[in-house]
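note to self — DONT lose this again. spent like an hour looking for the file last time. sequence + predicted structure for the chain T wanted, 400 res
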Amino acid sequence: MAPKRHSSRSQTFSSRAESETLPALSSYLLSLVSIKQSNLCVSADVHTTSALLRLAEEVGDSICVLKTHVDIIDDFSDRTIKGLQEIAKRKCFLIFEDRKFGDIGNTVQSQYTRGPLRIATWAHLTNAHLFPGPALIPALHSAATSTLISLNQSVSTEISTGTPRSSIDGNPFDDPELSPLSPSTTRTPHPPLLPKPSSPTAATSTTRPLTTADIDMSHRRGSTVTATTTISQTYEPSPPNPASLSRTLSSSSDPALDRAAALAELGPPPHARGLLLLAQMSSDGNMLDSAYTDACVAAARENRDFVLGFVAQEDLNRDKGDEWVVFTPGVGLPADNREARDGLGQRWRGPREVVRDEGADVVIVGRGALGAKDRRAEAERYRLEAWRGYEERVERRRCQ
């Protein structure tokens, strides 16, 4: 007997986003998907910063998430990330770094937050294998939290100078360690520091060592420097209630204007990070069996505030309280609509099929879009197919 399908299969993305138990980033993503009518993630497997930014510009309007592999960018730098963040903000998509963490907790924390990549500072989403053990999840969560706190603090320093009262401060040069002229220093007096007129030797000689006694300090008084450092902390707002977004989407007769208004109301992503567990793979002969997948689901349930969902080949929402977002790779549009392979172990299925029949929420497309002559048009073609699969899935479940 086939297992009963989870209720989330028949729910719209916008209704799922309304759940009060969802992490803010999950709610934001589902709202974004609903507004843009895009459950497409393009995998940016390119090798230069310019190629990455060009791809993001071309496909950004048609996607909800851009998946990166920044460790294969030959000229990776801060410019890479700043450019990508600017496009993501303008085109309204999240950034998913496909790092596939898989090591002990201490190591993955450093890999996530340090080195030249510093993934936690810019990627909304990342992913991990569970084979090192479930302790990897709270380790990454802790690292993400620390990074966000650090990013969220702004430090400003105000420096002011003033002349102290001599009765309190005295002459700062009374301390020989603070004197600009030690007894052995030989130099021509600086013009503002004039020799005392009552000292004829000082007025005619510039070769003997000068001391502070030779300098008229009567017109100079000690000064103090005060530095005041202020640390302030701000937080980005959580996404608005999806119900208000629904009203925005139905406020005019022009869908494009509705979407623009709803995206403006949705605003920027929340100040949060999320993890996807790699529960299943699309390559032939992979070692991620059903027991491993079950372990991923169990670990995710223990970390609902950080794990948003899975990279998987099917819907992994099983229990009543499950609210996972499922990303499915291995998606393509072969000419004959059959499963395709690349000869290197990868196999592809159509986006409409994996969303409608397998319960995927977001489809991940790589070479199918990257290799197109018109990548903008090809991304839109994939978006339409994946969205059609979603609409058919929801309608099918409603009719049953």
